[in-house]
Amino acid sequence: MRVNPRRASAGSRTRLRPKGKNGGPDAKILFTLIILLLAATWGPGTDGALGAETPPNTTLKEAETVTGPVNYDRAVRLALVRSPFFTRSSLEIQVKRLDETDSKFDMAPSITFRTQYYVNRPETIYGTSNKPYTLSFSSSNYNPLEAYFSLQAKKLFTQIAILAHMHAINQGIAKLGNMFLEMDSLGQAATRQETLISLTRKNLEYSQKRLSIGTGTSLELRVAKRELAAAQAEKDRIAASRNRLQARIKALIGLKTDQPLELDYKDARRQVMGNFDPAAATVEQACNRSYLLKIAELKKQLQEYNIMLAKARLLPSVFMGAATPDPLSGLTSRQLFFSLGLQVPVWDGFQRVRNISRQKIVLRQYGADKDQKTLEVSDKWFEAQENLRVADVNLKAALDLEELARLKERQGDIRYHSGGEPLSVYLEGRKNLADAQRNTLQKNLDYNLALLGLRNLSGDLGASYVDEKSWQQ
Questions:
Q1: pTM for this structure?
Q2: Is residue 91 part of a domain?
Q3: Structural domain includes residue 313
């Protein structure tokens, strides 16, 4: 006998009715899962994910227009706050911190909510109408060891970005020190060039007077004019170099070209070198403070985590889910059914196993790279010391030549005033002294630049302005 589905017994309908109220899903369970999903998305900690974690900065706050004299110390602090040359490496730290925050959230599996609605309401074989939708929660494949090692690796990436930023700052403030030393040297050269121009002008007047009274020649006059023109050209070259160098300093400390800048570069060597003692600096100190060597060591540690990650990928991953029955399945139950499963890698051509060997070889490469960089730092250190020694010898030789020229100038001055020598001989002695002083000025600049190079390589310069620990978390 056939049974009409619409006239099924009450007992039959009772057996098909779900346990939830009115045939719907368990409201408490759904509400709890939705709250957990929202908390994971918007709860505490998302500020860091959205970029609230920013690297520490110096406390110096400057107005848009810099007023007053700017010495080297103030220029460095302005550059640390405003320089566009440090922006990229600073922003890279923020990117790595965001990656690190992502890995922190990956310590728990991600959850996806999915719902599906059927426009045509399905009916059961007994004629009852099912709910036309389905709800499901599913997690991604989760490997706790892989998530942990990934987090540790992202932390090392952040530390590498910090050290790279420190290295960029170190190079920037050393470049700024070079500019201040050059600006001081150009300032002294401009002052001495004025003296040379005054001497050549006197020589020109003397030649014109000799020509007018018939004791001189037109060739002497032409030579004197050329000497004055050459001295004027050198003055213009020095002025152009100073303007160009000041524009470079403005760009490095973050000022616009039209903004005024009053530089205080008097006694630049004392400003830039501070209390640095080259005799006390050692190659061990240079290696311990080298940011490139610290980065190389962190890369080795990072590769060790990559080996652990490769091993962790051999383990099975876990996935979870919860869903209401599909209305097309014919079930009228609207309960939320939970599930748990494992995904086990069975066959991939032993790629995961070979990847472990590959990562171990890469670790050996990073070890060799660190050894090579250590040798490079040592070579640069001894080269910097040799450059400083040669510059010191050249400076002493230039000072001796300057003293000799000064004695000859004094001798010519005595003879000229006693009537034993003409004015041209006296002026020639003055010009030789000016040339010797200019040579001494250049050799003094070479020595200062070599000394700054040694201080920068020792790490003393960067450590004087930036505390690496303040960037660590």
A1: 0.78
A2: yes
A3: yes
